[in-house]
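Priority: low. Protein: General transcription factor IIH subunit 1. Input follows.
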Amino acid sequence: MTSSEDVLLQVGPVRHKKGDGTLYVMSQHVAFILNSSDTVAISHHYRDIKMQKISSEFKNKVQLQLVFHDETISLFQFTNSERSEAMRDRNRVKDLIQQLLPKYQKQANKEFGEKSRILGENRMLFQLYQDLVITHVITSEEFWSQHVPYHLATQSKVITQKTGVPNNFLTNVTVKSDGTKKFNLSNDTIQCIFKTYPAVRQKHIEYVPHQLTESAFWQKFLESHYFHKDRITTGSTKDLFNDCAKLDDNLFKNEIKDLSKNSLDCYVGMIEDDGSDDNINSTAEEKSSMANIVHENIIKRFNQHSMMVLKTCEKSNSNSISNGNDIKVPSNSSHTNGTPDNALKRLKIQEKIGFEDLNPETEIIDINQKRLKLSRVESYVNCLTREQKHDNTSSKLSKAREVQKSIIYDVYEWSKSTSNQVIEPSAAVNTLGLLTPGGSLMKGISDESASLAQL
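Result:
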């Protein structure tokens, strides 16, 4: 409760837990102050109140009960001298709280939904809530104010995996024409286009909304030669995306050059046209290439599109990548006249197919490397010999013989000691005969049994 809250209603006398005081209905809280104190004894926010209940008219006590979302209750008894005045004060408080509850219950439902979502997404946080709040170790307010922000802050530091770009995202674009041109582009497809083709994103920033609307921009994109790359170019300068296609072609050529430099095959490279007329069939090949230019453009488009999709999955590293992913060659490198360094390629091939631990001729010695020194290597690489096995068996047999001898000695030295005196066997037999039926000690018992039988 803050001191700046407006007091909407003040009612007294009111009793709460055997304490008399005054009940305050304010703009955000319901507060109770004892008569013997100037401080607030209890304070309940409206968003924590689930419902309110009142006592029956036939009961002697006039009571108002506040039920909270955690199923706890707070009971107030109106102790006016007249019952009618107590009923009137109780109804005034009830009606005013009933007017204020809907506003804060919507806020409480929204906060409750947000808290449920957080606990549902974070199982560790939900387990912590059960261990601390359900067991009444801490209050719910302390949990949400202290523990939850810390866990959410640590969770936000975790690097999330970026969503990739599907290879067939352009197939989801459908162009319809029934007198008027219509096209359907989802937001996900637009984002995929921006990720795969940065030149289109740059054009979108330059033209939308200053020169073109959003729909006009994408209409030009779908009608452009840049989108329909299987068409034969007409050399029109009205196409908005002509320079985008040129940028993508230059990037594609640079990627091919980089692949040729990093290729494992040091004897296969790009065939460059140096202007010589060594090939006598160049004219025929030129004619066939002109005839198949559509097929070549389609293959080039597929390869270029796949390359752009793969580049969206690459992680940007500012330390190792700079200025368009170009490879910088130092001045003292052995590259001359644009030809790849064969020695570097041979070294890469050697790294791929060579294993240092399997090549005894080449041994790289590292000063900082700690080597394991074994005094007896044969004990690690060889199994036990027959002599070693025989020694182990004989030692086990000798231990068994020693145990056997100790047991025999203990049995031989064992003596039976009895604390009570034992009678002789003959005396025991005579005693049993006297106690059996017909014996001298059993005559009186037999006479009594006979007389009982006659009765």
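The beta strands are 7-16, 19-26, 29-34, 42-45, 49-54, 63-68, 73-78, 174-177, 181-184. The longest helix spans residues 83-121.
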